[in-house]
Amino acid sequence: MASGITVFLTTFLVYSYIGGAFAATFSIINNCPQTIWPASLNPGGGAALQTGQIWTLNVPAGTAAGRIWGRTGCTFDQSGSGSCATGDCGGQLVCQASGAIPATLIEYTLNGNQNQDFYDMSLVDGFNLPASIAPSTSSCTTVTCSKDINADCPPELKVAAGGCQSACAAFPSNDLYCCRGQYINNCPPSNYSQFFKSECPQAYSYAKDDQTSTFTCPGGSDYNVVFCP
After folding, report:
1. Which cysteines are joined by disulfide bonds (predicted)?
2. Pairing of strands 131-135, 223-227
3. What are the CA-CA distances from residue 198 to residues 33, 38, 159, 204, 229 (Å)?
4. Confidence (pLDDT) at 112
5. Do residues 205 and 198 touch, judged by C-beta distance below 8 A?
6. What ranges do the domains of the chain cover?
7. What is the model's pLDDT at position 21?
8. 132-159, pLDDT tens digit by residue?
9. 8 A C-beta contact, residue 206 and residue 190
């Protein structure tokens, strides 16, 4: 980046009340000892955050298939063009596409079935940063992956830029690891997905890991997303 660290925020058109459902505010907090570059999709966005800084993301009611992830090792020029070591989204500070593997993902759909928010943490694309998501509604579950999986990552899943990639990314021809072919409808856990699950039991470890990894909260809740909780 240029001299100094600037927090770049994107501005979104947000409706606070749409069709009987409230929008949600995601407060994205960097608790890591280094600068990170969180990103989002649906809506698209991105920011540079020093330790302790917060990026506030307002998400319209009814948003589906949203995601938030952290990027590391980034360099951007004044126009917002550059690159990241992990989580890169086409070399742009303000993302309009998903981040590159490996990346720890926070996923959400707002005001879904029976006006419930659905949210999860996914390691299906691998891991680059510890993270958590905490709903503002006290009765809802906080999902946390606080362990540094990079330190325990099997050598064959480690990437030179940092992070622990998924088995599907490391062995793309293996249908079991990618839950396709004969495994598309009935995909069992693999030795690699079981590794991720043992490290972070609340997170998705493979594509069919719904039963222990999908959480709900009443629509209208807000969320804190913390990197390095």
Report:
1. 32-228, 74-84, 89-95, 140-217, 145-200, 153-164, 168-178, 179-187
2. antiparallel
3. 25, 25, 20, 11, 18
4. 92
5. no
6. 17-227
7. 56
8. 999 999 999 999 999 999 999 999 999 9
9. yes
